């Protein structure tokens, strides 16, 4: 069969690779982070930018103007939806507990209502974590596109300090202002409220300071390197080895190249 996979996050990447390995006639991956430069010679998938529309005859038209004939299947690997209604009072969260965003246009305010209604965002939350209307509730793990377990650890450490009384949260008004200020920085709408990506380093640095912890620079460098390998060497990126050099104290990554006997080596901060 000919399959179009929308999305190249962890699920989209793994599913599209499995389809290619399993003998699909054609696997097309449509992704927002489209890069036409495919490094891995084993990768037989066809990479495309985002889909613009589906034509009446079933053909798929992409944002760069290219098209493909009607595929047999289109798989949506575009993320998850959040639901907390079964264990948290709905009147403490949007869209029911709506507070008019300061300095925000009507379009963004409407987007906030819609995204919290359909489950693509949980709001209002302070620093991606504490429910502003009731800060005794905290949502560990809302952010995505980040190092999840380190994120959980940092969030949990901060929660423990707050609940123990050793650290105080700001007044509700200040937490709302921080939340609205963050919303105003979103370029792709409220559906990306919990996406960290390039914001991960700043977020982790802030959480580390709030939780009396330190995150080394090498952690961020290795994360970015692993993300590069996952996209550029999708068939063997998991074979990469990261070791700390006993002499220099620096972290070093080694991975075998598919088209040569040599290793690709990268050194990170110590």
UniProtKB/TrEMBL annotation:
Keywords: FAD, Flavoprotein, Monooxygenase, Oxidoreductase. InterPro entries: FAD/NAD-bd_sf, Flavin_mOase-like, FMO-like. One of its GO terms (molecular function) is N,N-dimethylaniline monooxygenase activity. Coiled coil: none annotated. Gene3D superfamilies: FAD/NAD(P)-binding domain. Belongs to the FMO family. This is Flavin-binding monooxygenase-like protein. The lineage of its organism: Eukaryota, Sar, Stramenopiles, Oomycota, Peronosporomycetes.
